[in-house]
């Protein structure tokens, strides 16, 4: 990452027991220094990898889970084969206790595959862990997960939920790009992805600017920070992020939540449906539909359906669980023709 990258803004002294609403609804990222420094796992992680492994072993349940195996030649990057015809890693059945044993055995080795277990639900894999290591989200009910592994590099991607990622063992460098850098990040296939989200084809560790020249423009907007055990980063919805684990043993505790009703579908579904039904229309018709989307979606306000009696507004009125179910049923009926 070039030295010209801006540092991510930082907050100090945030109360981890009651995260402020302004933070949970922010649209700009920030590093939360020392947010989880009081957690026992962060204290163990700051002491040593062995101490962190021993602490996790005290909670780790012997339940089946998949471990990602990245060949040594990939230098920890979880991505595609060169021809994009498949993924350059594999998943193997394992468990968290078995992974901890293997990572402890591997430490100091540089010629073995890189292992990690990602986005594993904490409550199922580490029962009792959150009683001693948790954040206070008020009315929010985030999904809490844990990432345990070696020196991995997670390609540039974005997530729909807001995210607080807490480094509790090892160190991580996080590089962020604003959502509007989409065109400069060269995003790969949507159908075949390493973990469900499309990723950038650029390797930030060795960017090929002849093949991906606009990435140089994305770098002008990059923000970067190195996180130690006890530090966290807030990543707003749809911000692109690249996560590098800098040590041989790393643990990340992650919280995801959405600022939308539970009945709302993923906007990605709308994007895929628009590709199916709008993208390849003749230019003049596509322009008409751009105006239709602006009217009903992007510029919609109280006046959009004011001319329709309130009981008759249907999907043009306020959407609740009942209306959402009716809309979903209508869509399924139209798609299954």
Description:
This protein has helices spanning 21-24, 40-47, 49-57, 96-106, 122-125, 215-219, 267-277, 283-298, 321-335, and strands at 6-7, 10-12, 30-33, 64-70, 90-95, 114-121, 143-149, 153-157, 162-169, 172-177, 223-227, 232-235, 240-245, 250-257. It has 337 residues and is of the alpha+beta class. The radius of gyration is 22 Å and the shape is globular. The mean pLDDT is 94. The protein contains nine helices and 14 strands. The termini are far apart.
Question: What is the element layout, followed by pairings?
Answer:
Blueprint: E1 6-7, E2 10-12, H1 21-24, E3 30-33, H2 40-47, H3 49-57, E4 64-70, E5 90-95, H4 96-106, E6 114-121, H5 122-125, E7 143-149, E8 153-157, E9 162-169, E10 172-177, H6 215-219, E11 223-227, E12 232-235, E13 240-245, E14 250-257, H7 267-277, H8 283-298, H9 321-335
Parallel strand pairs: 1-11, 2-3
Antiparallel strand pairs: 3-12, 4-5, 4-6, 6-7, 7-14, 8-13, 9-12, 9-14, 10-11, 10-13
Unreliably modeled segments: none
Query: How would you classify the helix and strand content by structural class?
Result: alpha+beta
Encode the helix/strand succession as letters: EEHEHHEEHEHEEEEHEEEEHHH
End-to-end distance: 50 Å
Shape: globular
Keyword list:
337 residues; alpha+beta; Jelly Rolls; 2 domains; nine-stranded mixed β-sheet; five-stranded mixed β-sheet; 9 helices; Cupin-like domain-containing protein; Cupin_8; JmjC_dom
In short:
The protein has 337 residues and is α+β, with helices and mostly antiparallel strands. Helices cover 25% and strands 23% of the residues.
